[in-house]
Design goal:
Two copies of one chain form a homodimer.
Chain A: H1 19-35, H2 45-52, H3 56-69, E1 72-78, E2 86-91, E3 95-102, E4 106-113, E5 118-125, H4 133-153, E6 157-165, E7 168-170, E8 175-179, E9 184-188, E10 202-206, H5 207-218, E11 226-231, E12 235-241, E13 244-246, H6 277-280, H7 282-288, H8 298-310, H9 314-338, E14 343-347, H10 348-351, H11 353-367, E15 377-379, H12 386-401
Parallel strand pairs in A: 3-6, 6-10, 11-14, 14-15
Antiparallel strand pairs in A: 1-2, 3-4, 4-5, 7-8, 8-9, 11-12, 12-13
Chain A binds a DNA duplex through helix 1 and helix 3.
Chain lengths: 408, 408
DNA sequence: CTCATATAGTTCAGGCAATGAACTAAAGCT
DNA sequence: AGCTTTAGTTCATTGCCTGAACTATATGAG
């Protein structure tokens, strides 16, 4: 397949292109090629040249810049059979990024190296329901500082961070627009306080979006177009198209939890009616299954639901079946709107998949025949740490795509 | 606002950037600046330099290339008050593109100059229902040749063309995958036969997508994010985000006609169940209104429907109200998936808007409160020639974005 | 009428980045 | 030991943008 001709500036972007942009672009190209080599194998400059289409001379020069910036390092030799062996190149293991998460029941921070490996992870239980933002952020800052200093003792430098939050966010403005389960509305987060003096600062992400990005990286099938649906208290989603997160014009695309699946249904927290969330959200499933969400923690209730399903309690089974069926309707509509035909189930959808799967497939077959093959309905590969990994991964990726931001 | 840093090659695209790409990119930047100047005003090189951020020297050189390629021309002088007057630049009026359309009841061809003005238009009635593709294409080729020669007599050269078809298309493969109302399934179209030896060849478009692009250009409010829904025999749609058509990974995004609005509804031609099209497509509305679509032409039936609405025939009114209400549900879901909050109604939705509007707004308010303001629900500005204009406009735009394709 | 001023557009030296060819380096094979 | 093969570097060349100097052409003041 022929690659599209590169375009320097978009049609709207009135940025003039100069020769320096070429270097920035090629720097990213080279770094990307090194990053995308199968883990364990360390490409030589010559291999990078082959992969990128650049000449050996250019690659040598670009690699030098990346070495100077400390983003990559040389490691060992790489015999190719005959001839002079190449010098292996890899992403520097002493540079890393911090993934952070604020969720309803906990806060968490992890150090992820540039290759995507989790070096350290700490989780701190904390009831953030209807919490104030300041204390939560302060607690997270303490946690982050501790993890950071542990990493520092191992010679790992933190370049930047990503924070995932369960709610609608405005990344540019560092604002959480609304996070119903935290009780936050339009709060500004002082992100830089989380990682003082980190070279790249801290970026903000929606939880489901971040998790979708983590899936992208860790999918065994290597799919680059899919919808990630995350069942939590609410139902979130992230759309990945062409290995990119599709955020829509306002940055809030993929909110599949609020697709209408029951025109005559009940009210939703979003103000709408008959949203998927009112059928397939945790509270909805619990109450339809006859389990009280109030008595005890949410995870305890989930365990109770699983026990009920295993022993075949009719009310529980039909609650989950209804959720699966309605999820299918929402996915059918989504397929039509964004032309996607593969789904990854996360959150409680992953846990409930054995019971959800059949009604989900039925429903997909009924409402969008031919769109989703059964093997394209899969379960999350990253599990509950998806948001954390995705937030970190996204920051790493933006670094790989614009390495010139690191002094070079 | 700070413009995003230009990126030469995408993350996936393994195309190396060389210095020549800078020129290509800047060529497009300059041409785009000239094209986007308010019609009637002809910018000077100095003004272009100001608008693009390039130096006067670079602009002079780039403009020279564009003049040589015949894409622009110098026109008159442009006094700026004091000082030497600038030389006006404009898109060449003697270069044009042909927009073509194959629809159920007609074929059509128009010549559109680079500024987007329609110079010539011919429409030929023709019943293409369940037609063979070859004769239709042959008839269109004859029509196109005639229009082209008329244009040639006026000194206008046709650089390329765009063909809009009511069905799913594969533009790269020049294939119509399925066009239910033409009865076409996976037919290859010999597009180049339509405009032999045109410099840029002929591109293929989905009708609703092309119409969406035409809206983009002709919208009085200048909106750059909206959903265009076109009511025809089927219900088509085109999503415009950031002034770009959003096509999705497979190129078939925006098929809002097959969003599920009635889970217990009837079968749809797509194989699904309860699709919007089964409620708001022309045949569905006609039959719910008690009008026979068989007796007489479709436009006659539409006239009958309008008369019935004007005299308040209850069945007709409620059929259209139901269509509007269900359209609202589909738009509500679409808003959630792609984060769009503005709609343009085309096709019969535009004609029926006086009766559709109230139920549509009610439904939007109920299912997606706060998403669509009333003033963001508007009627098509281009009318029935949208597909034609959009197909041509898209070809023009791709030329403006890659002018180096013309010998230069 | 002439000269100062302001703006448009061109010319030219300088710098930067990629290229391709020539060259050096370091292995395996015979 | 010598040939071959592959990795990586050096260097002259080319292309493009930039900024400064320069030419061209208008208005307006004296």
């Amino acid at each position: 397949m022929v690659m599209p001709a590169p375009a320097l500036a978009g049609p709207g972007g009135a940025a003039p292109g100069s020769v320096g942009d070429v270097r920035r672009s090629n720097l990213a190209l080279v770094l990307g090629a090194i990053a995308e080599f199968p883990p364990g194998t360390h490409p030589s400059r010559a291999q990078v040249a082959g992969a990128t289409g650049l000449t050996k001379a250019s690659v040598s020069s670009l690699v030098l810049d990346l070495l100077d910036a400390g983003i990559i390092r040389e490691i060992g030799l790489n015999p190719q059979g005959r001839g002079r062996p190449g010098v292996g190149l890899e992403l520097s293991p002493s540079r890393a990024v911090m993934g952070m998460e604020i969720n309803v029941d906990y806060i968490s921070a992890a150090v992820v190296d540039l290759a995507g490996t989790v070096l350290l992870r700490e989780l701190q239980e904390r009831d953030n329901r209807n919490s104030q933002d300041m204390p939560v952020l302060a607690a997270l800052a303490v946690l982050a500082a501790r993890v950071r200093s542990t990493a520092g003792e191992q010679g790992v430098e933190i370049l930047g961070g990503g924070l995932a939050v369960p709610g609608l966010v405005d990344p540019a403005g560092a604002r959480v627009l609304t996070a119903p389960n935290l009780g936050w509305v339009n709060v500004y987060l002082d992100l830089d306080a989380l990682l003082p003096e980190a070279a790249l600062g801290v970026e903000l992400f929606n939880e489901a979006n971040a998790a979708a990005l983590a899936e992208l990286r860790h999918r065994p099938d290597g799919a680059s177009n899919f919808l990630f649906v995350s069942g939590e208290v609410g139902v979130g989603g992230g759309i990945v198209i062409g290995s990119e997160l599709f955020t829509g014009p306002g940055g809030h695309a993929g909110e599949v939890g609020h697709i209408v699946v029951d025109p005559d249904g009940g009210h939703c927290s979003c103000g709408g009616t008959g949203c998927l969330e009112t059928v397939a959200g945790q509270d909805a499933i619990f109450s339809a299954a006859g389990l009280a969400p109030e008595g005890g923690s949410r995870s305890a209730t989930m365990s109770a639901l699983l026990r009920a399903l295993e022993s075949g309690v009719p009310k529980a089974v039909s609650a989950v079946e209804r959720a699966g069926y309605c999820l299918g309707m929402a996915l059918a509509s989504t397929a039509r709107v964004v032309d996607i035909d593969s789904v990854v189930l996360g959150g409680h959808f992953a846990v409930l998949e054995p019971w959800l799967r059949a009604p989900l497939l039925n429903s997909l077959h009924k409402y969008a025949p031919g769109k989703y093959a059964s093997e394209h309905v899969t379960v999350s590969a990253v599990g509950e740490f998806g948001a954390l990994l995705g937030a970190a991964g996204s920051v790493i990726r933006s670094l790989v795509e614009a390495p010139h931001r690191l002094h070079a």
